[in-house]
Amino acid sequence: MDPSRLATGALRAPGRRRANVPEATVARLPLYLRALHVLAEDGHQTVSSEALAEAAGVGSAKLRKDLSHLGSYGTRGVGYDVTNLVEQISAELGLEHRCSIVLVGVGNLGRALAGYGGFASRGLAIDALLDADQGRVGEVIAGLTVQHVEHLPQVVSTGSIGVIATPALAAQEVCDLLVAAGVTSILNFAPIVLTVPDGVDLRKVDLSVELQILSFHEHRKAALTAAGASA
Amino acid sequence: MDPSRLATGALRAPGRRRANVPEATVARLPLYLRALHVLAEDGHQTVSSEALAEAAGVGSAKLRKDLSHLGSYGTRGVGYDVTNLVEQISAELGLEHRCSIVLVGVGNLGRALAGYGGFASRGLAIDALLDADQGRVGEVIAGLTVQHVEHLPQVVSTGSIGVIATPALAAQEVCDLLVAAGVTSILNFAPIVLTVPDGVDLRKVDLSVELQILSFHEHRKAALTAAGASA
DNA sequence: CTGACTTTGTGCGCGCGTTCACAAGCGCGT
DNA sequence: ACGCGCTTGTGAACGCGCGCACAAAGTCAG
Ligand SMILES: NC(=O)c1ccc[n+]([C@@H]2O[C@H](COP(=O)([O-])OP(=O)(O)OC[C@H]3O[C@@H](n4cnc5c(N)ncnc54)[C@H](O)[C@@H]3O)[C@@H](O)[C@H]2O)c1
Ligand SMILES: NC(=O)c1ccc[n+]([C@@H]2O[C@H](COP(=O)([O-])OP(=O)(O)OC[C@H]3O[C@@H](n4cnc5c(N)ncnc54)[C@H](O)[C@@H]3O)[C@@H](O)[C@H]2O)c1
Asked: pLDDT at residue A2 above 70?
Protein backbone atom coordinates (compact mmCIF):
# COMPACT_ATOMS: atom_id res chain seq x y z
CA MET A 1 0.00 0.00 0.00
CA ASP A 2 2.84 2.34 0.76
CA PRO A 3 4.72 2.91 -2.48
CA SER A 4 7.76 4.51 -0.88
CA ARG A 5 8.39 1.53 1.34
CA LEU A 6 7.83 -0.87 -1.50
CA ALA A 7 10.39 0.98 -3.56
CA THR A 8 12.98 0.93 -0.77
CA GLY A 9 12.45 -2.71 -0.03
CA ALA A 10 12.32 -3.94 -3.58
CA LEU A 11 15.62 -2.56 -4.76
CA ARG A 12 17.78 -4.18 -2.12
CA ALA A 13 18.41 -7.85 -2.70
CA PRO A 14 21.93 -8.39 -3.97
CA GLY A 15 22.77 -11.94 -2.98
CA ARG A 16 19.55 -12.64 -1.11
CA ARG A 17 17.67 -15.80 -1.89
CA ARG A 18 15.08 -15.27 0.81
CA ALA A 19 13.60 -12.00 -0.28
CA ASN A 20 10.36 -10.99 -1.85
CA VAL A 21 7.36 -12.22 0.01
CA PRO A 22 4.39 -10.39 -1.54
CA GLU A 23 2.37 -8.24 0.80
CA ALA A 24 -0.82 -10.13 -0.01
CA THR A 25 0.88 -13.36 0.99
CA VAL A 26 2.09 -11.92 4.28
CA ALA A 27 -1.47 -10.91 5.10
CA ARG A 28 -2.60 -14.53 4.70
CA LEU A 29 0.20 -16.23 6.62
CA PRO A 30 -1.51 -15.56 9.98
CA LEU A 31 -4.64 -17.24 8.66
CA TYR A 32 -2.71 -20.32 7.66
CA LEU A 33 -0.98 -20.34 11.02
CA ARG A 34 -4.29 -20.26 12.85
CA ALA A 35 -5.75 -23.04 10.75
CA LEU A 36 -2.61 -25.11 11.27
CA HIS A 37 -2.88 -24.79 15.04
CA VAL A 38 -6.41 -26.11 14.91
CA LEU A 39 -5.33 -28.99 12.69
CA ALA A 40 -2.41 -29.78 14.98
CA GLU A 41 -4.68 -29.99 18.00
CA ASP A 42 -6.94 -32.23 15.98
CA GLY A 43 -4.06 -34.67 15.66
CA HIS A 44 -3.26 -34.17 12.00
CA GLN A 45 0.40 -34.64 11.13
CA THR A 46 0.19 -33.71 7.48
CA VAL A 47 -2.19 -31.54 5.48
CA SER A 48 -2.86 -31.27 1.80
CA SER A 49 -3.02 -27.83 0.25
CA GLU A 50 -6.65 -28.50 -0.51
CA ALA A 51 -7.58 -29.18 3.11
CA LEU A 52 -5.55 -26.29 4.51
CA ALA A 53 -6.96 -23.93 1.92
CA GLU A 54 -10.47 -25.00 2.88
CA ALA A 55 -9.74 -24.36 6.55
CA ALA A 56 -8.25 -20.95 5.83
CA GLY A 57 -10.98 -19.93 3.43
CA VAL A 58 -8.79 -19.44 0.35
CA GLY A 59 -8.12 -21.23 -2.92
CA SER A 60 -5.67 -24.14 -2.93
CA ALA A 61 -3.54 -22.76 -5.75
CA LYS A 62 -3.17 -19.47 -3.92
CA LEU A 63 -2.10 -21.26 -0.79
CA ARG A 64 0.53 -23.32 -2.59
CA LYS A 65 1.95 -20.24 -4.25
CA ASP A 66 2.02 -18.42 -0.93
CA LEU A 67 3.93 -21.22 0.75
CA SER A 68 6.32 -21.51 -2.17
CA HIS A 69 7.25 -17.86 -1.67
CA LEU A 70 8.80 -18.50 1.71
CA GLY A 71 10.69 -21.53 0.43
CA SER A 72 8.81 -23.93 2.63
CA TYR A 73 8.63 -27.23 0.88
CA GLY A 74 5.94 -29.81 1.23
CA THR A 75 6.12 -33.39 0.08
CA ARG A 76 4.51 -34.27 -3.21
CA GLY A 77 1.95 -36.95 -2.99
CA VAL A 78 1.56 -36.36 0.75
CA GLY A 79 1.18 -32.72 1.63
CA TYR A 80 2.73 -30.47 4.25
CA ASP A 81 4.05 -31.49 7.64
CA VAL A 82 1.90 -29.54 10.09
CA THR A 83 4.51 -29.03 12.79
CA ASN A 84 7.19 -28.02 10.34
CA LEU A 85 4.90 -25.60 8.58
CA VAL A 86 3.92 -23.96 11.86
CA GLU A 87 7.59 -23.41 12.61
CA GLN A 88 8.32 -22.08 9.13
CA ILE A 89 5.51 -19.56 9.18
CA SER A 90 6.15 -18.55 12.78
CA ALA A 91 9.78 -17.93 11.93
CA GLU A 92 8.83 -15.91 8.88
CA LEU A 93 6.48 -13.77 10.93
CA GLY A 94 9.07 -13.32 13.64
CA LEU A 95 6.94 -15.04 16.27
CA GLU A 96 9.54 -17.50 17.55
CA HIS A 97 10.47 -14.96 20.18
CA ARG A 98 7.69 -13.16 22.01
CA CYS A 99 6.80 -9.96 20.25
CA SER A 100 6.55 -7.07 22.67
CA ILE A 101 3.52 -4.83 22.38
CA VAL A 102 3.14 -1.39 23.92
CA LEU A 103 -0.43 -0.14 24.25
CA VAL A 104 -1.08 3.58 24.59
CA GLY A 105 -4.54 4.72 25.69
CA VAL A 106 -6.37 2.61 28.25
CA GLY A 107 -9.94 3.71 27.58
CA ASN A 108 -12.89 1.61 26.50
CA LEU A 109 -11.08 0.01 23.60
CA GLY A 110 -7.64 -0.18 25.20
CA ARG A 111 -9.13 -1.95 28.20
CA ALA A 112 -10.71 -4.58 25.97
CA LEU A 113 -7.45 -5.11 24.14
CA ALA A 114 -5.47 -5.38 27.36
CA GLY A 115 -7.83 -7.99 28.73
CA TYR A 116 -7.85 -10.05 25.59
CA GLY A 117 -6.22 -13.45 25.95
CA GLY A 118 -6.04 -14.21 22.24
CA PHE A 119 -2.80 -12.31 21.72
CA ALA A 120 -0.61 -14.02 24.26
CA SER A 121 -1.57 -17.42 22.95
CA ARG A 122 0.55 -17.09 19.82
CA GLY A 123 3.77 -15.19 20.21
CA LEU A 124 2.13 -11.85 20.86
CA ALA A 125 2.19 -10.29 24.31
CA ILE A 126 1.25 -6.87 25.63
CA ASP A 127 4.16 -5.73 27.75
CA ALA A 128 3.10 -2.26 28.84
CA LEU A 129 -0.01 -0.11 29.27
CA LEU A 130 0.34 3.65 29.06
CA ASP A 131 -2.07 6.53 29.54
CA ALA A 132 -1.93 10.28 30.03
CA ASP A 133 -4.75 10.36 32.58
CA GLN A 134 -3.29 10.40 36.09
CA GLY A 135 -6.52 8.86 37.33
CA ARG A 136 -5.76 5.74 35.35
CA VAL A 137 -2.06 5.51 36.11
CA GLY A 138 -1.48 2.83 38.70
CA GLU A 139 -4.54 0.84 37.80
CA VAL A 140 -3.87 -2.84 37.30
CA ILE A 141 -5.40 -4.50 34.23
CA ALA A 142 -4.77 -8.12 33.34
CA GLY A 143 -1.71 -8.18 35.57
CA LEU A 144 -0.16 -5.04 34.12
CA THR A 145 0.08 -1.70 35.88
CA VAL A 146 -0.89 1.34 33.83
CA GLN A 147 2.04 3.72 33.60
CA HIS A 148 2.18 7.35 32.62
CA VAL A 149 2.89 7.99 28.97
CA GLU A 150 6.08 9.84 29.92
CA HIS A 151 7.63 6.49 30.74
CA LEU A 152 7.23 5.37 27.15
CA PRO A 153 10.96 5.46 26.27
CA GLN A 154 11.72 3.15 29.17
CA VAL A 155 9.19 0.47 28.30
CA VAL A 156 10.04 0.32 24.59
CA SER A 157 12.51 -2.34 23.59
CA THR A 158 13.97 -3.18 20.19
CA GLY A 159 11.32 -4.67 17.98
CA SER A 160 8.39 -3.42 19.99
CA ILE A 161 5.07 -2.82 18.30
CA GLY A 162 3.13 0.26 19.32
CA VAL A 163 -0.68 0.30 19.54
CA ILE A 164 -2.53 3.60 19.61
CA ALA A 165 -5.96 3.55 21.28
CA THR A 166 -6.25 7.19 22.26
CA PRO A 167 -8.75 9.77 21.02
CA ALA A 168 -8.06 11.02 17.51
CA LEU A 169 -6.82 14.39 18.74
CA ALA A 170 -3.98 12.82 20.70
CA ALA A 171 -3.09 10.14 18.16
CA GLN A 172 -0.50 12.05 16.13
CA GLU A 173 1.22 13.26 19.26
CA VAL A 174 1.37 9.74 20.69
CA CYS A 175 2.53 8.48 17.32
CA ASP A 176 5.42 10.92 17.32
CA LEU A 177 6.34 9.85 20.84
CA LEU A 178 6.40 6.22 19.77
CA VAL A 179 8.59 6.98 16.77
CA ALA A 180 10.92 9.08 18.90
CA ALA A 181 11.23 6.16 21.30
CA GLY A 182 12.39 3.94 18.45
CA VAL A 183 9.17 2.10 17.56
CA THR A 184 9.03 1.28 13.85
CA SER A 185 5.73 -0.61 13.71
CA ILE A 186 2.48 0.99 14.78
CA LEU A 187 -1.14 -0.12 14.81
CA ASN A 188 -3.60 2.76 14.98
CA PHE A 189 -7.24 2.58 16.09
CA ALA A 190 -7.92 6.30 16.06
CA PRO A 191 -9.99 7.54 13.11
CA ILE A 192 -7.41 9.93 11.74
CA VAL A 193 -4.66 9.92 9.12
CA LEU A 194 -1.29 9.66 10.82
CA THR A 195 2.02 10.77 9.37
CA VAL A 196 5.15 8.74 10.05
CA PRO A 197 8.72 8.98 8.75
CA ASP A 198 10.04 6.56 6.14
CA GLY A 199 11.01 3.25 7.59
CA VAL A 200 8.10 3.15 10.02
CA ASP A 201 5.28 0.74 9.23
CA LEU A 202 1.82 2.01 9.99
CA ARG A 203 -1.40 0.03 9.86
CA LYS A 204 -4.83 1.15 10.89
CA VAL A 205 -8.02 -0.50 12.05
CA ASP A 206 -11.00 1.70 11.40
CA LEU A 207 -14.30 0.25 12.48
CA SER A 208 -16.40 3.09 11.13
CA VAL A 209 -14.89 2.55 7.70
CA GLU A 210 -15.71 -1.16 7.82
CA LEU A 211 -19.30 -0.42 8.76
CA GLN A 212 -19.65 2.20 6.06
CA ILE A 213 -18.36 -0.22 3.44
CA LEU A 214 -21.01 -2.68 4.56
CA SER A 215 -23.56 0.10 4.47
CA PHE A 216 -22.65 0.78 0.87
CA HIS A 217 -23.20 -2.82 -0.17
CA GLU A 218 -26.43 -2.97 1.75
CA HIS A 219 -27.56 0.19 0.02
CA ARG A 220 -26.55 -1.17 -3.38
CA LYS A 221 -28.32 -4.46 -2.80
CA ALA A 222 -31.48 -2.62 -1.80
CA ALA A 223 -31.32 -0.50 -4.94
CA LEU A 224 -30.82 -3.57 -7.11
CA THR A 225 -33.74 -5.51 -5.69
CA ALA A 226 -35.94 -2.44 -5.98
CA ALA A 227 -34.92 -2.04 -9.62
CA GLY A 228 -35.48 -5.74 -10.23
CA ALA A 229 -38.92 -5.60 -8.66
CA SER A 230 -39.96 -2.60 -10.72
CA ALA A 231 -38.58 -4.02 -13.97
CA MET B 1 -21.45 10.15 -18.04
CA ASP B 2 -20.92 9.36 -21.67
CA PRO B 3 -23.01 6.31 -22.58
CA SER B 4 -21.06 5.54 -25.73
CA ARG B 5 -17.80 5.24 -23.85
CA LEU B 6 -19.49 3.09 -21.26
CA ALA B 7 -20.58 0.80 -24.04
CA THR B 8 -17.02 0.54 -25.26
CA GLY B 9 -15.58 -0.26 -21.85
CA ALA B 10 -18.25 -2.47 -20.36
CA LEU B 11 -19.98 -5.24 -22.21
CA ARG B 12 -23.40 -4.54 -20.74
CA ALA B 13 -24.85 -1.08 -21.01
CA PRO B 14 -28.50 -1.33 -21.99
CA GLY B 15 -30.00 1.52 -20.06
CA ARG B 16 -27.64 1.61 -17.11
CA ARG B 17 -26.40 4.96 -15.97
CA ARG B 18 -25.29 4.05 -12.45
CA ALA B 19 -22.02 2.25 -13.16
CA ASN B 20 -19.90 -0.09 -11.10
CA VAL B 21 -17.99 1.59 -8.33
CA PRO B 22 -14.75 -0.37 -7.81
CA GLU B 23 -14.33 -2.02 -4.43
CA ALA B 24 -11.09 -0.19 -3.76
CA THR B 25 -12.85 3.10 -4.32
CA VAL B 26 -15.67 2.20 -1.94
CA ALA B 27 -13.11 1.47 0.75
CA ARG B 28 -11.73 4.99 0.40
CA LEU B 29 -15.01 6.90 0.29
CA PRO B 30 -15.34 6.89 4.10
CA LEU B 31 -11.89 8.44 4.37
CA TYR B 32 -12.86 11.23 2.01
CA LEU B 33 -16.05 11.74 3.93
CA ARG B 34 -14.21 12.10 7.20
CA ALA B 35 -11.70 14.52 5.73
CA LEU B 36 -14.53 16.53 4.20
CA HIS B 37 -16.28 16.86 7.54
CA VAL B 38 -13.12 18.28 9.06
CA LEU B 39 -12.74 20.69 6.17
CA ALA B 40 -16.36 21.76 6.43
CA GLU B 41 -15.97 22.55 10.13
CA ASP B 42 -12.87 24.51 9.24
CA GLY B 43 -15.00 26.75 7.08
CA HIS B 44 -13.80 25.61 3.67
CA GLN B 45 -16.44 25.81 0.96
CA THR B 46 -14.41 24.26 -1.83
CA VAL B 47 -11.47 21.87 -1.89
CA SER B 48 -9.00 21.00 -4.59
CA SER B 49 -8.27 17.35 -5.24
CA GLU B 50 -4.73 18.02 -4.09
CA ALA B 51 -5.81 19.33 -0.71
CA LEU B 52 -8.43 16.66 -0.11
CA ALA B 53 -6.02 13.94 -1.15
CA GLU B 54 -3.47 15.29 1.31
CA ALA B 55 -6.06 15.28 4.09
CA ALA B 56 -7.14 11.74 3.27
CA GLY B 57 -3.63 10.41 2.85
CA VAL B 58 -3.93 9.33 -0.78
CA GLY B 59 -2.69 10.50 -4.16
CA SER B 60 -4.60 13.27 -5.93
CA ALA B 61 -5.01 11.35 -9.19
CA LYS B 62 -6.49 8.40 -7.32
CA LEU B 63 -8.91 10.68 -5.54
CA ARG B 64 -10.09 12.31 -8.77
CA LYS B 65 -10.63 8.94 -10.39
CA ASP B 66 -12.50 7.71 -7.35
CA LEU B 67 -14.83 10.70 -7.39
CA SER B 68 -15.35 10.41 -11.12
CA HIS B 69 -16.60 6.85 -10.60
CA LEU B 70 -19.64 8.02 -8.68
CA GLY B 71 -20.37 10.72 -11.24
CA SER B 72 -19.76 13.53 -8.81
CA TYR B 73 -18.56 16.54 -10.70
CA GLY B 74 -16.26 19.19 -9.43
CA THR B 75 -15.61 22.55 -11.03
CA ARG B 76 -12.48 22.93 -13.10
CA GLY B 77 -10.22 25.67 -11.96
CA VAL B 78 -11.90 25.70 -8.54
CA GLY B 79 -12.25 22.24 -7.06
CA TYR B 80 -15.10 20.43 -5.34
CA ASP B 81 -17.92 21.94 -3.35
CA VAL B 82 -17.48 20.53 0.13
CA THR B 83 -21.16 20.37 1.10
CA ASN B 84 -22.21 18.87 -2.20
CA LEU B 85 -19.47 16.27 -2.06
CA VAL B 86 -20.45 15.26 1.46
CA GLU B 87 -24.00 14.69 0.26
CA GLN B 88 -22.90 12.77 -2.81
CA ILE B 89 -20.66 10.41 -0.87
CA SER B 90 -23.15 10.01 1.97
CA ALA B 91 -25.85 9.09 -0.53
CA GLU B 92 -23.56 6.63 -2.27
CA LEU B 93 -22.73 4.95 1.04
CA GLY B 94 -26.39 4.87 2.04
CA LEU B 95 -25.84 7.06 5.07
CA GLU B 96 -28.59 9.59 4.40
CA HIS B 97 -30.87 7.45 6.55
CA ARG B 98 -29.53 6.10 9.81
CA CYS B 99 -28.05 2.68 9.31
CA SER B 100 -29.21 0.23 11.95
CA ILE B 101 -26.58 -1.92 13.64
CA VAL B 102 -27.22 -5.06 15.67
CA LEU B 103 -24.39 -6.08 17.99
CA VAL B 104 -24.19 -9.67 19.22
CA GLY B 105 -21.86 -10.49 22.11
CA VAL B 106 -21.51 -7.92 24.86
CA GLY B 107 -18.17 -8.96 26.33
CA ASN B 108 -15.00 -6.91 26.63
CA LEU B 109 -14.97 -5.88 23.01
CA GLY B 110 -18.73 -5.58 22.54
CA ARG B 111 -18.94 -3.29 25.55
CA ALA B 112 -16.30 -1.00 24.07
CA LEU B 113 -18.13 -0.91 20.75
CA ALA B 114 -21.47 -0.21 22.41
CA GLY B 115 -20.04 2.67 24.36
CA TYR B 116 -18.30 4.23 21.41
CA GLY B 117 -19.70 7.57 20.31
CA GLY B 118 -17.90 7.72 17.00
CA PHE B 119 -20.48 5.65 15.18
CA ALA B 120 -23.59 7.64 15.88
CA SER B 121 -21.93 10.84 14.74
CA ARG B 122 -22.12 9.91 11.07
CA GLY B 123 -25.15 7.95 10.05
CA LEU B 124 -24.27 4.82 11.96
CA ALA B 125 -26.18 3.83 15.07
CA ILE B 126 -26.22 0.73 17.21
CA ASP B 127 -29.87 -0.22 17.67
CA ALA B 128 -29.69 -3.41 19.69
CA LEU B 129 -27.36 -5.33 22.00
CA LEU B 130 -27.72 -9.09 22.24
CA ASP B 131 -26.03 -11.75 24.34
CA ALA B 132 -26.58 -15.39 25.28
CA ASP B 133 -25.49 -14.94 28.88
CA GLN B 134 -28.55 -14.47 31.11
CA GLY B 135 -26.37 -12.63 33.60
CA ARG B 136 -25.84 -9.90 31.01
CA VAL B 137 -29.39 -9.72 29.69
CA GLY B 138 -31.10 -6.68 31.15
CA GLU B 139 -27.92 -4.74 31.68
CA VAL B 140 -28.07 -1.20 30.31
CA ILE B 141 -25.10 0.01 28.25
CA ALA B 142 -25.03 3.41 26.62
CA GLY B 143 -28.80 3.68 26.90
CA LEU B 144 -29.50 0.29 25.37
CA THR B 145 -30.77 -2.72 27.26
CA VAL B 146 -29.02 -6.01 26.52
CA GLN B 147 -31.52 -8.51 25.18
CA HIS B 148 -31.32 -12.26 24.86
CA VAL B 149 -30.04 -13.49 21.53
CA GLU B 150 -33.35 -15.30 20.97
CA HIS B 151 -34.96 -11.94 20.31
CA LEU B 152 -32.71 -11.38 17.34
CA PRO B 153 -35.43 -11.78 14.68
CA GLN B 154 -37.47 -9.05 16.35
CA VAL B 155 -34.73 -6.45 16.50
CA VAL B 156 -33.53 -6.93 12.94
CA SER B 157 -35.00 -4.56 10.39
CA THR B 158 -34.44 -4.34 6.65
CA GLY B 159 -30.98 -3.07 5.92
CA SER B 160 -29.57 -3.89 9.33
CA ILE B 161 -25.88 -4.62 9.72
CA GLY B 162 -24.89 -7.41 12.09
CA VAL B 163 -21.76 -7.25 14.23
CA ILE B 164 -20.37 -10.43 15.80
CA ALA B 165 -18.30 -9.96 18.96
CA THR B 166 -18.74 -13.38 20.51
CA PRO B 167 -16.07 -16.01 21.18
CA ALA B 168 -14.89 -17.84 18.07
CA LEU B 169 -16.75 -21.01 18.99
CA ALA B 170 -20.12 -19.28 18.91
CA ALA B 171 -19.43 -17.08 15.90
CA GLN B 172 -20.67 -19.40 13.15
CA GLU B 173 -23.83 -20.16 15.09
CA VAL B 174 -24.53 -16.47 15.63
CA CYS B 175 -23.73 -15.81 12.00
CA ASP B 176 -26.31 -18.36 10.91
CA LEU B 177 -28.87 -16.77 13.21
CA LEU B 178 -28.19 -13.36 11.71
CA VAL B 179 -28.55 -14.69 8.18
CA ALA B 180 -31.74 -16.52 9.09
CA ALA B 181 -33.13 -13.27 10.47
CA GLY B 182 -32.52 -11.58 7.14
CA VAL B 183 -29.24 -9.77 7.76
CA THR B 184 -27.15 -9.55 4.58
CA SER B 185 -24.17 -7.56 5.87
CA ILE B 186 -22.02 -8.84 8.72
CA LEU B 187 -18.89 -7.59 10.44
CA ASN B 188 -17.01 -10.28 12.32
CA PHE B 189 -14.47 -9.77 15.10
CA ALA B 190 -14.04 -13.41 16.04
CA PRO B 191 -10.80 -15.01 14.83
CA ILE B 192 -12.41 -17.70 12.73
CA VAL B 193 -13.38 -18.26 9.11
CA LEU B 194 -17.13 -17.86 8.74
CA THR B 195 -19.28 -19.32 5.97
CA VAL B 196 -22.19 -17.36 4.59
CA PRO B 197 -24.59 -17.95 1.68
CA ASP B 198 -24.26 -16.05 -1.56
CA GLY B 199 -25.67 -12.57 -1.37
CA VAL B 200 -24.44 -11.97 2.15
CA ASP B 201 -21.51 -9.59 2.59
CA LEU B 202 -19.02 -10.58 5.22
CA ARG B 203 -16.11 -8.52 6.45
CA LYS B 204 -13.76 -9.31 9.28
CA VAL B 205 -11.57 -7.34 11.63
CA ASP B 206 -8.79 -9.49 12.98
CA LEU B 207 -6.48 -7.71 15.36
CA SER B 208 -4.12 -10.64 15.78
CA VAL B 209 -3.60 -10.72 12.04
CA GLU B 210 -2.80 -7.02 11.97
CA LEU B 211 -0.26 -7.42 14.74
CA GLN B 212 1.33 -10.42 13.08
CA ILE B 213 1.70 -8.52 9.82
CA LEU B 214 3.48 -5.77 11.73
CA SER B 215 5.57 -8.41 13.44
CA PHE B 216 6.63 -9.70 10.03
CA HIS B 217 7.79 -6.30 8.87
CA GLU B 218 9.57 -5.68 12.13
CA HIS B 219 11.30 -9.02 11.76
CA ARG B 220 12.26 -8.26 8.17
CA LYS B 221 13.61 -4.84 9.05
CA ALA B 222 15.70 -6.35 11.83
CA ALA B 223 17.10 -8.92 9.42
CA LEU B 224 17.91 -6.24 6.87
CA THR B 225 19.74 -3.98 9.29
CA ALA B 226 21.66 -6.96 10.65
CA ALA B 227 22.66 -7.90 7.10
CA GLY B 228 23.58 -4.31 6.36
CA ALA B 229 25.71 -4.09 9.51
CA SER B 230 27.58 -7.30 8.74
CA ALA B 231 28.14 -6.44 5.09
C1' DC C 1 11.44 -52.85 -9.34
C1' DT C 2 7.75 -50.88 -11.71
C1' DG C 3 3.71 -48.53 -12.62
C1' DA C 4 -0.03 -45.82 -11.29
C1' DC C 5 -1.86 -42.41 -8.30
C1' DT C 6 -1.54 -38.30 -5.50
C1' DT C 7 -0.11 -33.75 -4.58
C1' DT C 8 3.12 -30.11 -5.04
C1' DG C 9 5.19 -26.24 -7.46
C1' DT C 10 4.75 -22.98 -11.17
C1' DG C 11 4.33 -20.84 -16.01
C1' DC C 12 0.98 -18.18 -18.19
C1' DG C 13 -2.87 -15.20 -19.23
C1' DC C 14 -6.24 -12.07 -17.40
C1' DG C 15 -8.38 -8.41 -14.85
C1' DC C 16 -8.03 -4.81 -11.36
C1' DG C 17 -5.93 -0.93 -9.42
C1' DT C 18 -2.50 2.69 -9.51
C1' DT C 19 0.14 6.20 -11.60
C1' DC C 20 1.61 9.44 -15.13
C1' DA C 21 0.68 12.89 -18.14
C1' DC C 22 -2.19 15.90 -20.71
C1' DA C 23 -6.15 17.89 -23.05
C1' DA C 24 -10.51 20.05 -21.95
C1' DG C 25 -13.00 23.22 -19.15
C1' DC C 26 -13.83 27.04 -16.00
C1' DG C 27 -13.10 31.43 -13.58
C1' DC C 28 -10.79 35.66 -13.32
C1' DG C 29 -8.17 39.59 -14.31
C1' DT C 30 -7.42 42.91 -17.71
C1' DA D 1 -14.24 40.24 -24.96
C1' DC D 2 -10.29 37.43 -24.45
C1' DG D 3 -6.52 35.04 -23.22
C1' DC D 4 -4.12 33.17 -18.83
C1' DG D 5 -3.57 30.07 -15.28
C1' DC D 6 -5.52 26.72 -12.43
C1' DT D 7 -7.94 22.31 -11.75
C1' DT D 8 -10.58 18.52 -13.22
C1' DG D 9 -11.40 14.34 -15.74
C1' DT D 10 -9.46 10.58 -18.24
C1' DG D 11 -6.64 7.83 -21.75
C1' DA D 12 -2.83 4.75 -21.54
C1' DA D 13 0.79 2.05 -19.59
C1' DC D 14 2.45 -0.53 -15.92
C1' DG D 15 2.68 -3.75 -12.12
C1' DC D 16 0.53 -6.88 -8.93
C1' DG D 17 -2.17 -10.57 -7.68
C1' DC D 18 -5.24 -14.37 -8.84
C1' DG D 19 -6.77 -18.66 -10.96
C1' DC D 20 -6.18 -22.30 -14.35
C1' DA D 21 -3.96 -26.10 -15.83
C1' DC D 22 -0.09 -29.09 -16.15
C1' DA D 23 4.51 -31.16 -15.64
C1' DA D 24 7.63 -32.72 -12.08
C1' DA D 25 8.23 -35.42 -8.11
C1' DG D 26 7.38 -38.45 -4.63
C1' DT D 27 4.61 -42.31 -2.46
C1' DC D 28 2.46 -46.65 -2.20
C1' DA D 29 0.77 -51.14 -3.77
C1' DG D 30 1.91 -55.33 -5.83
N1 LIG E 1 -14.36 2.17 21.70
C2 LIG E 1 -14.59 1.71 20.50
O3 LIG E 1 -15.32 0.76 20.29
C4 LIG E 1 -13.92 2.34 19.33
C5 LIG E 1 -14.34 1.97 18.07
C6 LIG E 1 -13.72 2.54 16.96
C7 LIG E 1 -12.69 3.43 17.14
N8 LIG E 1 -12.31 3.77 18.35
C9 LIG E 1 -11.22 4.71 18.50
O10 LIG E 1 -10.27 4.22 19.41
C11 LIG E 1 -9.77 5.28 20.18
C12 LIG E 1 -10.01 4.99 21.64
O13 LIG E 1 -11.39 4.81 21.86
P14 LIG E 1 -11.94 4.69 23.32
O15 LIG E 1 -13.40 4.42 23.23
O16 LIG E 1 -11.10 3.73 24.09
O17 LIG E 1 -11.71 6.17 23.89
P18 LIG E 1 -11.61 6.57 25.44
O19 LIG E 1 -11.84 8.03 25.51
O20 LIG E 1 -12.45 5.67 26.24
O21 LIG E 1 -10.11 6.28 25.83
C22 LIG E 1 -9.04 7.09 25.42
C23 LIG E 1 -7.90 6.92 26.41
O24 LIG E 1 -6.73 7.58 25.89
C25 LIG E 1 -6.15 8.32 26.96
N26 LIG E 1 -5.40 9.42 26.39
C27 LIG E 1 -5.87 10.62 25.95
N28 LIG E 1 -4.87 11.37 25.50
C29 LIG E 1 -3.73 10.66 25.67
C30 LIG E 1 -2.36 10.92 25.41
N31 LIG E 1 -1.96 12.06 24.85
N32 LIG E 1 -1.47 9.97 25.72
C33 LIG E 1 -1.88 8.81 26.25
N34 LIG E 1 -3.15 8.51 26.52
C35 LIG E 1 -4.07 9.43 26.23
C36 LIG E 1 -7.29 8.78 27.80
O37 LIG E 1 -6.84 9.06 29.11
C38 LIG E 1 -8.23 7.57 27.76
O39 LIG E 1 -7.90 6.66 28.78
C40 LIG E 1 -10.49 6.51 19.71
O41 LIG E 1 -9.67 7.19 18.78
C42 LIG E 1 -11.71 6.00 19.06
O43 LIG E 1 -12.13 6.85 18.01
C44 LIG E 1 -12.90 3.23 19.47
N1 LIG F 1 -11.28 -8.18 23.46
C2 LIG F 1 -10.44 -7.90 22.47
O3 LIG F 1 -9.68 -6.96 22.54
C4 LIG F 1 -10.43 -8.72 21.25
C5 LIG F 1 -9.41 -8.55 20.36
C6 LIG F 1 -9.39 -9.31 19.18
C7 LIG F 1 -10.39 -10.21 18.96
N8 LIG F 1 -11.37 -10.36 19.84
C9 LIG F 1 -12.43 -11.32 19.55
O10 LIG F 1 -13.67 -10.72 19.74
C11 LIG F 1 -14.56 -11.68 20.29
C12 LIG F 1 -15.10 -11.16 21.58
O13 LIG F 1 -14.03 -10.87 22.47
P14 LIG F 1 -14.33 -10.49 23.96
O15 LIG F 1 -13.02 -10.18 24.59
O16 LIG F 1 -15.37 -9.48 24.02
O17 LIG F 1 -14.87 -11.88 24.56
P18 LIG F 1 -15.79 -12.04 25.86
O19 LIG F 1 -15.68 -13.44 26.28
O20 LIG F 1 -15.43 -10.98 26.84
O21 LIG F 1 -17.26 -11.74 25.37
C22 LIG F 1 -17.97 -12.65 24.60
C23 LIG F 1 -19.45 -12.39 24.82
O24 LIG F 1 -20.20 -13.16 23.88
C25 LIG F 1 -21.28 -13.75 24.58
N26 LIG F 1 -21.68 -14.97 23.89
C27 LIG F 1 -21.12 -16.19 23.95
N28 LIG F 1 -21.79 -17.05 23.18
C29 LIG F 1 -22.80 -16.37 22.62
C30 LIG F 1 -23.83 -16.72 21.73
N31 LIG F 1 -23.95 -17.97 21.23
N32 LIG F 1 -24.71 -15.78 21.38
C33 LIG F 1 -24.60 -14.53 21.84
N34 LIG F 1 -23.62 -14.14 22.69
C35 LIG F 1 -22.75 -15.06 23.07
C36 LIG F 1 -20.78 -14.02 25.95
O37 LIG F 1 -21.86 -14.09 26.85
C38 LIG F 1 -19.91 -12.79 26.20
O39 LIG F 1 -20.67 -11.76 26.75
C40 LIG F 1 -13.78 -12.94 20.47
O41 LIG F 1 -13.99 -13.78 19.36
C42 LIG F 1 -12.38 -12.48 20.46
O43 LIG F 1 -11.50 -13.47 19.96
C44 LIG F 1 -11.43 -9.63 20.98
From this structure: no
